[in-house]
Amino acid sequence: MATGGCVMTLWDRYQFAVTLLAMWASLALAATGEVPVNIMIPSLAVPPLAFLARQYLRKVPWWIWDLLVFALFLQLIPVARQNLLNATIYFLLALQAVKLLSFRRVSDAYSSYVVSFFQMFAAALLTTSPTYGLAVVGYLVLLVRCFLFHNELASIVKVHAKHEPKQRFRVWGPTRDEREIVTLYEQANGSPAGQRPGTTLALALLLLSLSIIFFLTVPRLSTRRVFQTLGPPPSQISSAFDENIELGKFGTIQLDTSVAMYVKPLDTAGHPTSIRLRGVALDTFDGSRWERTSWAAYREAFGQFCLRPYPLRANLIIQPANTSRFLFGETFPFALQSFDFQQALLSDPSAGVAWLPYPPSKELHYTVISRVEELDDRQDPALYQRPSAKRQTEAELQEDLATSNTSPIEMAMQRLRREFGLESGVSRTAPSSDTPHRRGRAFAGDIAIMRNAPDYIFPPYLAACLRIPEDVINVSKLRKLAEEITRGASSRYAQALAIERYLRQNYQYSLELPNPGAENAIEHFLYTSRSGHCEYFATAMAMLLRSLRIPCRVVNGYYSSEWNNVAGMFTVRQRDAHSWVEVYFDGYGWMTFDPTPPSALQRPSPMNPLFMAVTRYYDALKLRWYRSVIDFSVQDQRYVVHGVLAAFFAIGDALGSLRFENLSNSLSDDLPSAGEILLVVASVALVAGMLALSFRRLRLRSSVRKRRSNRRSYHMLPRFYRELLEALRKRGFVIEPHETPLEFAKRVARDAQLPPVEFITLCYYGVRYGGVELSREELEQIEQFSKEFSR
Amino acid sequence: MLALMAVVGYGAINSGTNLVYYLFSLLVAAYLTHGIVSPRNLDRLHVRRRLPRKYVAGSELPITLELTNGRRWLPAQSLIIEDYARRAQESGEAGSTICSRLAARSTATVAYRSASPLFQQRGIVEFREIVIRSLFPFGFIERSLHIPAPAELLVLPPIYPIREPLSEFFEELDGISRPKKGLSGDLYGLREYVAGEPAKRIHWRTSARARRIMVTEFEREEHPSLLLYLPTRLPKPSADDYQIFEVAVVLTASLAAYFLQHHFEVGLLTHDGVVAPASGDAQIERIQRALALVQLRTESQHAGLASEVAGADAIMLRYNSATRGPNGLHLIKEINVWDWRLIGNEWRRVAAS
Question: Which residues partner with A414 through β-bridges?
């Protein structure tokens, strides 16, 4: 039958839907950014090429395609051998190509479904990006569409294949051409009406809703054994955060505006205006390069470790993949918790840093509890006195830590909640203006406690923090300058403060490398150029302090003041990378000093304000995705279940207590609860009302639809009759309003000498009004006549 | 599907990745969605079978099924409707068809051609039940709804044309009961039209002349009467006898049609009963119905012929050497069934009897 040039048959549409699904899964895999380009390009190209080949090169035997695919993929074996990931994707791609090219039966699509699903599976292992959510939704809709198509075609084949003569035997492959069966069915009966977009969307929505419910409730068990090695192999990551950092490297990094991480304070009510994130503490300087001495690297139990037992503020850190293997935390980190690490966690309590054995291949999400230290609130450690009340608190805490089975991080969180007034039983209605005062008081008290806190300092580590590369730096000249700067300072704290102030006031901040290639970069900075970036400032201060025998170290991290008020978090970019100094005071511990001029830290935004606003919303969405999907944990499950149960019981209690005589009392006694319930009831009623109204509107609109039914009824005609009418229209024969189809056929047969028109019309009568399915012979006859008409 | 769920579930546990957990949840949800939607798809569906009034073996007439969706909102989709029947020792699927979509609170008519072997031979076909199957929505598990729908369909023996003129029959019949020449269908007279009479009998020219409607009257046609005698009792019928008996039945029906076309009043006589000679279109159906039910039995089950046909002029169909004409019947001719072959849907004599 003449099908027309651009008209796709039912089979073609089904094949197109399967192709689209395969393409979409490949695209989702490509969006992870982890797949090599030389595998990704064929992966994206294979589905459409296979579709076109099946459309236009139908006569090519299927085994030739298989041979072609085999030959092509032999060429790609070297690429696949690079690692397990590439090999897996390569294998999936080859399978997909074979199945799409040899698409002969309805059931062939099953293989494509499974392969595309495993592509989505691989993508899930490789990414945590919100774009994966979008990919899943699209995949789901396409998959439902394919399934509906599949059912239609499977039904047609199942019913009609029974009556097909078994004449087409092959050594391999199907005995019947299912494509032909489906096409003949469509020609005789028109397209099945089962796969409507509304049905697809409704089913996809139901599937999505149920999958979300399951996602929230399915038990989280993790052994983490098999797929750890699926990620790309560890490689050297160019980043500001490494154990060995050379002077001058920050000059290029600071220009990078890409997001380094997101930091969400768990108590957003009184968030600071800026945040200082420690990454790595460096203790050894050889004149041009800082290193972190590996004094102690403890393998800690997965999930959490304890640096100091005094938490003050908790931040959720979202660290993109491959940013750094070091974990970050607001100064000074105390403990961190995450269920996201897939590697053993290492920590150095002396340096107060933690890191992973190699950079993670996926984003990290962890909560860090820190003793926050703000530079404006610093005091000479010698002046701190331990308040008696706090001493009791400390004693209690120590006792708790010693006796309780509660983990340190849970203790910390409890304490944090107590300090911030978030503990259950504590009123939430405290005015927000009180929060800074409460926070300040809490910080002061905790700093006092920290003074006597046990330190994890090893003597060799402190010795390293005093070392000056004497073969490179003229120590006597350096000491002379330091003494000059600190003249009149009575304590070590005052000396450190004087050096910090001196550098801030007398040196200029510049991104240009001062005399790049100079053998002694730091002396050049101190005595000649007097300008440089933060790393030079920090190194200069460290060297000056060490010349005065004050232990100190350089810390690399981030300093950001970019607050996203939509997401309630800080956005930290690569350009926010920063270096500063930590000074050790006996009996107190480490204290932060930042010799870089504060004006240098106020970086102008390089982006368009409108774009910035948009990115904030995107970042907010991203954060929500991370929190609700990527970081969803067993604790969250407990919280959800508890919330649902609590709401259920609250509604039950409220309904039980709602009596007419004391309704007003109950409302006045417990207004928020009753109000919430009323709000819920009103919302439900509103939604129900809107639904009822919309159904009513739908019914009213049905009369409008009837007017359009004439146009639609034309498309409901059997395809062969539509094509006959079209062919006759081209010959100048149009059915008149007063004519029945048979009368029209008789007129055409008489005037144009086309007797078969009458036969086709009678077949149409049988199909349309008699519910008859045409036999194969009748269909073949009709096809032959139609070919003659269309000539 | 279950294997895939196991693999993905294992992957989720091993990787601890939430996105893999989501994919696992998606599979579970797909399974559950299918479990929820699939039974609803078959809920409150009713089906009614409409059998053709007259069904001739091998004719592949459409058997219509009226499918009703009694649900208020939800349409039914991707339905496969299978009709099951049995006859004697044989049972199976009578036919099947599909219904892509059936809107809520609506009725659709679907049909299937009865190409099943059940309809290839005469006799009673007993319909048992209609089964509605569906793979909707995801095809994981096929659901089915069994609706008892007992009914009976009498499959009539087919009639094939006899192109050859049976001249020897007419010669034989000539002196006995040939139709009267020149009288049949002659005009008897004219009379006034009575309400309800067919318009084709109105004689317009006379009516115009008389200025009132006049109709023509004809002389009553007199047809010769003939009985086709098909013996249905044999002393010891063999398997071949049963086969040739079926041929004899079809040939009897074809002969009946042939003689009716040639203005005979034709009747049928078997050991199971008698169809009194008559003419007209209804008579062939009566004979077919009778022939659809006759069974070849042993002599011991012999039943006497109906007394009212004793002495009638009859043609006996002989398909076995043991077949014989009963007493009291005036056999004017015998037809040997094995002399006849069905070639190209036409009866041909292969040897002169």
Answer: none
